[in-house]
Amino acid sequence: MNSTGMITDYPRFVKSFQNVSGLDLNYYKENQMKRRILNFMSTRGYQEDYTDFLKDLSLKPDLYDAFFKHLTINVTQFFRDVKQWDVFREKIIPDLLKTRSSLKIWSAGCSAGQEACTMAIVMAEYFPGINFSILGTDIDINVLKQAQSGIYDERDFASTPPHLLDKYFNKSEKKFQIKNTLTRNLTFKAQNLLTDKFDRGFDLIACRNVVIYFTDEAKDVLYKKFADSLNPKGILFTGCTEHLFGQSQHGLKSVSSFFYQKL
């Protein structure tokens, strides 16, 4: 595929796609995004000019949904990065509960809800009797539909302790549905992290394996918004490739690897 026209006209593509989707690709690293777009177009048989591709995105919902999912990279599982969840359970939540009797938690960029559900499982299993609420948000309404249904595939549980899978999910053939004992604490809604206003008063915000695709400028804006949304001494939980440099300028300090406390 000759990508010259595509790359040259990238700003026009960004503007046109934003009109279709509401997603502003200027916030994402340009070279990474160009590669992802070109790869998708090539696999779908689009050549050189993106005009037909953009037109088809407006006319073909299945193509649009596949492309949107390709761009937003919804890949996660329950208890992803097990060691971080050990710290979450053994240090972060106990420390928060020293000064709080309930917790308001947000999973930002939650994909199909695996991370939000993981936090609900930890709270129910290891901190019984503690009131908590968990909000999960994502820009992709299709993965949010799965989060709201609470139905997952066996492959989502590769890192999940078997006793927790048995306790908190009902199995039907090769699908697993989360039990109502957890869903009553979970809420999911659509949200654009880069442009929408945030709620406030969170004790913990988890945003993991999301910002690695953003520009440095977009990261700075987002981390500032997260800090503003946290209660004093609240915690920001990032992914294992997302070290937060210059954390003090966002009003945060490191309390453990990938966990940052609001000053």
What features would you highlight for this structure?
seven-stranded mixed sheet; 2 domains; Rossmann fold; alpha/beta; three-stranded antiparallel sheet; 263 residues; 21% strand
What would a concise description of this structure say?
The protein has 263 residues and is α/β, with parallel strands linked by helices. It is 44% helix and 21% strand.
Task: Write structural notes for this entry.
With 263 residues, this protein is α/β, with parallel strands linked by helices. It folds into 2 domains: 69 residues, no CATH class; 181 residues, Rossmann fold (3-Layer(aba) Sandwich). Helix content is 44%, strand content 21%. It is built from 11 helices and 10 strands. Helix 4 packs across helix 5. The N terminus is likely disordered. It holds the Pfam family CheR_N. InterPro entries: Bact_Chemotaxis_MeTrfase, CheR_C, CheR_MeTrfase, CheR_N, SAM-dependent_MTases_sf. This is Chemotaxis protein CheR. It comes from Dehalobacter restrictus (strain DSM 9455 / PER-K23). Keywords: Methyltransferase, S-adenosyl-L-methionine, Transferase.
